[in-house]
């Protein structure tokens, strides 16, 4: 593999998580079985759960393993809506599509009314608009702990405090924040928190919904009643074990991120850093490049052996500007020139310097190509 700067999409297994995973795969048994083989698997599973809980500042009983971050978010949002039986849901603009699509499904199929709260030019929620939207008929508030595209960290504690006055539970999508900044579920006051293993050096196919002891949700999957009757099904003990190891490691890439930001601004002076300049994830640098198509930049960098992203990988291949960038006030042409660079546990100074070295020529070639909509017969 060449230079990989798309760790927000997925990041390689850490050496420690891979070793734990392969060792745990040798343990045979269903964690729900009462014989010795089953109980051996149960120990592997619960040790992984305890590690995840310690890393997130919660009790192990509050950790509900899921098939990934998207399932955790669906379980939280649908489960809270069905349990609370109140019509309105409050969420800021610019959320991940796991949230946006789930809320739109609830509106279309369950009659939910979604109050979308505006965000500022950096992507931070308007607390004034939030307060105006809160009332007794709100089922819950949901928001990203940190934006997966532009990296802005939201004022979660203040949102929770506003909602608590009205007795409204808050869910945070912490998939992008986990492993990058310290998370303390108990101190946050949140009712629910969603995370994913493959974003932090754990395996694909496992995530978790942290659900406070005092919060109940209607399940999406029924069966054996595992995990507090919230999520049934045989649990993946090896994946849980590896998830636990990965969750214990906090990767602060702030110094390398700042080197990347400074390098890009030096190489392409009119590139615009998006997201909050201070309250941003330590592994995220998101830029828009005037006069360029993000896809052109991505393909040219890929040809040079550098993997980056135009935004959320969950929307890869969709020929439209990022809804996050439109939410913070960019016009379509500005939004289409976006690139997201995200660092991981194996990122190096050499990786960043190689990107900066090739970027001026890549941007120059992309500007010569122009926008797809300006080419006769081109499809947007």
TrEMBL record:
InterPro entries the UniProt entry points to: Aminotrans_V_dom, Cysteine_dSase, PyrdxlP-dep_Trfase, PyrdxlP-dep_Trfase_major, PyrdxlP-dep_Trfase_small
Catalytic function, reaction form: (sulfur carrier)-H + L-cysteine = (sulfur carrier)-SH + L-alanine
UniProt entry tagged with the keyword Iron: yes
Cofactors named for this entry: pyridoxal 5'-phosphate
Alphabetical list of Gene3D superfamilies matching this protein: 1.10.260.50, Aspartate Aminotransferase, domain 1, Type I PLP-dependent aspartate aminotransferase-like (Major domain)
Pfam short name (any one): Aminotran_5
Residue ranges occupied by any Aminotransferase class V domain in the UniProt entry: 3-355
SUPFAM superfamilies listed in its UniProt record: PLP-dependent transferases (SSF53383)
Keywords: Iron, Iron-sulfur, Metal-binding, Pyridoxal phosphate, Transferase
Protein name: Cysteine desulfurase family protein
Domain of life: Bacteria
The UniProt record lists the keyword Iron-sulfur: yes
Family per record: Belongs to the class-V pyridoxal-phosphate-dependent aminotransferase family. NifS/IscS subfamily.
């Amino acid at each position: 593999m060449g230079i990989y700067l798309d760790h927000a999409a997925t990041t390689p297994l850490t050496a420690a998580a891979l070793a734990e995973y392969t060792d745990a795969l040798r343990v045979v048994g269903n964690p729900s079985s009462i014989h010795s083989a089953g109980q051996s698997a149960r120990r592997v599973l619960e040790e992984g759960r305890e590690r995840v809980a310690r890393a997130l500042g919660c009790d192990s009983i509050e950790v509900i393993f899921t098939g990934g971050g998207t399932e955790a978010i669906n379980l939280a949002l649908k489960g809270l809506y069905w349990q609370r039986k109140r019509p309105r849901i409050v969420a800021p603009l610019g959320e991940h599509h796991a949230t946006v699509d789930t809320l739109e499904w609830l509106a279309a199929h369950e009659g939910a009314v979604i109050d979308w709260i505006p965000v500022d030019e950096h992507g931070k929620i308007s607390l004034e608009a939030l307060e105006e939207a809160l009332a007794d008929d709100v089922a819950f508030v949901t928001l990203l702990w940190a934006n997966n595209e532009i990296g802005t960290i939201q004022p979660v504690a203040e949102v929770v405090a506003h909602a608590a006055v009205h007795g409204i539970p808050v869910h945070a999508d912490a998939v992008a924040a986990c492993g990058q900044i310290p998370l303390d579920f108990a101190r946050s006051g949140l009712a629910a928190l969603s995370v994913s293993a493959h974003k932090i050096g754990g395996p694909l196919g496992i995530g978790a919904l942290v659900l406070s002891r005092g919060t109940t949700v209607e399940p999406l999957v029924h069966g054996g009643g595992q995990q507090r009757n919230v999520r049934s099904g045989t649990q993946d003990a090896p994946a849980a074990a590896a998830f636990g190891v990965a969750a214990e490691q906090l990767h602060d890439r702030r110094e390398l991120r700042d080197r990347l930001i400074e390098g890009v601004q030096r190489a392409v002076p009119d590139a615009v850093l998006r997201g909050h300049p201070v309250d941003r994830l330590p592994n995220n640098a998101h830029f828009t490049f005037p006069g360029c198509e993000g896809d052109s930049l991505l393909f040219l960098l890929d040809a040079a052996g550098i993997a980056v992203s135009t935004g959320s990988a969950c929307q890869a291949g969709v020929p439209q500007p990022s809804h996050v960038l439109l939410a913070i006030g960019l016009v379509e042409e500005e939004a289409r020139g976006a690139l997201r660079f995200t660092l991981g546990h194996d990122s190096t100074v050499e990786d960043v310097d190689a990107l900066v070295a090739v970027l001026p020529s890549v941007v120059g070639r992309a500007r010569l190509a122009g926008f797809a909509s300006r080419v006769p017969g081109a499809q947007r």
